[in-house]
Amino acid sequence: MKTRINLVVAILLLPVALPLAVSAQTTSPIDTFMVLDTVACPGKIVPIQFFVVNDSSDLAGIVAYFTIDDSLLTWVGEWDYYHDPPQLYVKYDTLPRAQLPGLFEPFSPLSMPGGLFLGSTQYSVLVGAGYDNAISIGRGAIIQFYVKVREDALIGAEAVISVFNPADEPPYDDPRMCQYANQTGEINVFPTLVSGSLTVVAPLYGDCDDNGVVEVADIMSLVEYIFQGSTQPNPLSIGDVNCDGLVNIADVVYLINYIFGSGPSPGDPNGDGVPDC
What is the pTM of this model? Predict the structure, then answer.
């Protein structure tokens, strides 16, 4: 019979509680939980990648805690009002490295409850445990979770996104609050934690398909949004290329004139080189 993965999420009142490991435990300088840096404009919903170096062991269970600078960012997710108090589940995607059948099964499918508080600190926790499969020894991003840049965020501002241990200070001093475990549950590793940042940048008006370039495909993307209700520009304001406060057919005509003619740049209808939106 296989051994259940054992991870510690005790000590504090947390949304999950997995039993204390009785197996080998290692505080490792070669293993890392890391938030990767990124950039985004005000109002944009952006994925934040969580990068894991698991050089000591395969990975079949994980607990990691995250905080964001809530003066510049908000969590993106769905509220579960069946909980009392209601529980936010942060939106995340599993990346190819962790897209393995049976991973984190059968015990605790991967989830990311958010909107939790430790004193005045709001945080989210990524948790999953099982033994049906495991991520091989190696390194790479395993998930990306989503945040939204506040509309009033100033260009050039930097928001810290931390992976942290809520029990790394007295009286607890317990490294087990952030860890991963192997498939048999015999090894628990407490990695080095490395935070990342999001730098707020100016919006690229007209980049309606969010690929970082203003081109013909953006015209098609804007047409499909306006007439078919397909995916809206992210944020919607970058589709307002003529800066009239609306996203409509006039913006499509403006973008056509810019790409195929000699029209002014998106977001700069008076052509003075300074964004007007």
Answer: 0.85
